[in-house]
Amino acid sequence: MKVCEWCMYCGECAGVCPNNAIEVCESSLRFDKKKCNECEFCIKVCPINALSR
Ligand code: SF4
Ligand code: SF4
């Protein structure tokens, strides 16, 4: 998953991830590739389209 520079670290994406694969820190997002099943819920929920594959 790629995060664009306009991400505001709101945590919406982490909140919908069914596998807890996203950790939101103060100024970064961490993706655990092993947990991700590529459902793309995080991409769809981001209010500013900051995520892409
Ligand atoms: S939902 Fe979008 S803006 Fe919010 S933390 Fe996730 S990627 Fe960043
Ligand atoms: S694609 Fe699905 S499983 Fe992977 S990080 Fe996004 S919400 Fe979580």
Automatic annotation (TrEMBL):
Give start and end of each 4Fe-4S ferredoxin-type domain: 1-24, 27-53
Q: Which Gene3D superfamilies match?
A: 3.30.70.20
Sorted alphabetically, which PROSITE patterns does this protein's record hold? 4FE4S_FER_1, 4FE4S_FER_2
Q: Name one Pfam family in it.
A: Fer4_7
* Domain of life, source organism: Archaea
**GO MF:** oxidoreductase activity
Query: Membrane spanning segments where?
Result: none
* InterPro entries given in the database record: 4Fe4S_Fe-S-bd (IPR017896), 4Fe4S_Fe_S_CS (IPR017900)
What is the name listed in the Swiss-Prot or TrEMBL entry for this protein?
4Fe-4S ferredoxin iron-sulfur binding domain protein
